[in-house]
Predict the structure.
Amino acid sequence: MIVYTKVPHETFKAAAHLVVTGRKRKYSDVKIILAHLGGATPFLAPRVAVLSRHMGSQLTTEEMLEDFKSFYYDTALTAYDATLTALDKFVQPDHILFGTDFPGKSYSTLSSHTSLIVPLSAVNMEMAGWYTKNVDEHYAGDTKSEMVLRDNAVKLFPKLQNIMTAK
């Protein structure tokens, strides 16, 4: 399952709801990828965990933080040294996945009365290249590089290995 919203705080709200209600723990075998580093998740998870415990959550602060850390996080539209450093401190390297949102093309009709289809693109090649360069630079010379750029995705989606070896 991939949690994807256009607003980073909505991604965090969805993740926090799963954690605070105990659903993430109850369905721990479900692998969930939070797009865009989970929005603000690495930054707000400790705050929500402490406040939720204070407000009566049945889970301990540590259990909630453990559940937040069990999500997978992709780097799409968020790869910058400061954000990647924060994520590195928050989760294990095997829970970080490379992402770009490229080509980012989707299509929309202008109205129900027309068949005119308008391409929408939030991400172009220049943007994807900038974020990719930041991931490359952040993990350059680091043993985590191959994990983030390839291996973690292959572990979650084993059929990717067949695609990668077919080239």
Summary: The radius of gyration is 18 Å. The chain is about 50% helix and 10% strand.
